[in-house]
Known about the structure:
This protein has helices at residues 53-62, 65-68, 73-79, 87-99, 117-125, 138-151, 163-176; strands at 7-14, 17-24, 26-29, 35-39. It is of the alpha+beta class. A hairpin with a 2-residue loop joins strand 1 (7-14) and strand 2 (17-24).
Amino acid sequence: xxxxxxxxxxxxxxxxxxxxxxxxxxxxxxxxxxxxxxxxxxxxxxxxxxxxxxxxxxxxxxxxxxxxxxxxxxxxxxxxxxxxxxxxxxxxxxxxxxxxxxxxxxxxxxxxxxxxxxxxxxxxxxxxxxxxxxxxxxxxxxxxxxxxxxxxxxxxxxxxxxxxxxxxxxxxxxxxxxxxxxxxxxxx
Length: 188
């Protein structure tokens, strides 16, 4: 019988003592989508969070927005990934937004301290706070803004009924061949 509870996936040890553990559910599927191996509950409904950024970027490409705005492979990569908030990430997202006639205030991802130590230290030394470009999801949001511009959507691209979100939902359901059970808003 399969274990239906989350199982320990990662343990962190310090000085011979278990400091923390992280539990979860995981599956390995074959090319037909059949489960070959499973840990925990393969039917558990979860929030995929950053793991579906590549799916969320599909409408950017499939709609023709990426071509229409001349996006580079680096910009497409930034739209598909989380980043560390390093200066190179911040500058790439800033330049992308400027290229479509927008800026940092147009983002709806919120700000947080960069994970990149050098950029974090620079902000502290310059007595600056982080901005939304430091958010590890700013590339995804630059992609959302680009798609919104292409679709003629308004600035509130995070609203569940916005054309960008509807396009992302459609892509998610198309790729997974599942009906989405709902959504959650985490500030990003």
